[in-house]
Amino acid sequence: NAGVTQTPKFRVLKTGQSMTLLCAQDMNHEYMYWYRQDPGMGLRLIHYSVGEGTTAKGEVPDGYNVSRLKKQNFLLGLESAAPSQTSVYFCASTRTGMNTEAFFGQGTRLTVV
Amino acid sequence: LAKTTQPISMDSYEGQEVNITCSHNNIATNDYITWYQQFPSQGPRFIIQGYKTKVTNEVASLFIPADRKSSTLSLPRVSLSDTAVYYCLVGGVYTGGFKTIFGAGTRLFVKA
Predict the structure, then answer these.
(1) Given B42, B92, B104, which is nearest A41 (Cβ)?
(2) Which of A51, A90, B37, B44 is most buried by its number of CB atoms within 10 A?
(3) Strands (DSSP E) found in chain B
(4) Is the torsion defined by CA of A107, A109, A110, B3 positive or negative?
(5) pLDDT (tens digit, 9 = 90+) per residue, A13-51?
C-alpha cells in the first residue's frame, strides 16, 4: 500500500497563476484533509472532507478551493496564487474522524513568487 | 477551540526518558488528545491518542490528568533517531463542523 500520495512534491508559481494539488489515498478512508505548514508553526487545517462529494472549511480556507469527486482523491486548488500561500502543504486521511490515526502524505512545497 | 501550548524545544541524551507536556486549558468534552512526530521534509506520523487517564503503546505513553487540561507524552529510552518535532493535537467533531488545533510543536534533540 502506498498510503497517502501527494502530487507534485515541489512547485514554483508566479503570483496570479493557478494550480491544483492532488492527494490520493489507497486505504479506503472516509475523511481527508488539507493542511498548510509555515516555518515555526504547527499545521493549520485548510479544508476537509467527510466523504465522497462533500467538503467543508477548516481554519484557513480563504484563497483555496477543494473537491472530492472520488473517495480516494482530494484536490486542493489555488485559483490565483499569492506569495502568502508559499508554504508546505500536507494531505491526510483518516478512517473516520480525527479521533482515529491520521496518515499524512509527504508534503508539497509550494513557492509563489 | 482549545489552544495548545508546548515547550519550544527540549534536549535529552540517548537512553533517557523524555516527557513532553502539552497544556490545553480549554479542552472540550468531545476533544481527544493526539500526538504526532515529524521529521524534516516528511509528514507527521501518529504516535499515540487518548481521552483520559493513561494510554500506552509500543513506542510511548500518554498521561492525561482527570481535569484533562494538560497531557504528557512519555518516550522511554530515547535514541538519536527520536530527534524530531512532536506535536500535540486537540480536536474533535462538533455540531456543524470539525475542529483540530495543532500546537506549535516541541523540537526534541537527542544527543549521544
Answers:
(1) B104
(2) B44
(3) 9-13, 18-23, 32-38, 45-50, 53-56, 61-64, 70-75, 84-94, 97-102, 106-111
(4) positive
(5) 999 999 999 999 999 999 999 999 998 778 888 999 999
Cβ burial of A113 (10 Å; 0-12, 13-18, 19+) is exposed
Cβ atoms B51, B32 nearer than 8 A: yes
Maximum CA extent, chain A: 38
Q: How far apart are the first and last CA of chain B?
A: 39
Residue of A nearest to B91 (CA): A98
Q: Is A39 on the interface with B (CB under 8 A)?
A: no
Going edge to edge, which strands form the sheet with B53-56?
Answer: B18-23, B70-75, B61-64, B53-56
Phi, psi of B10 (to 5 degrees): -145, 145
d(C-alpha B103, C-alpha B17), whole Å: 22
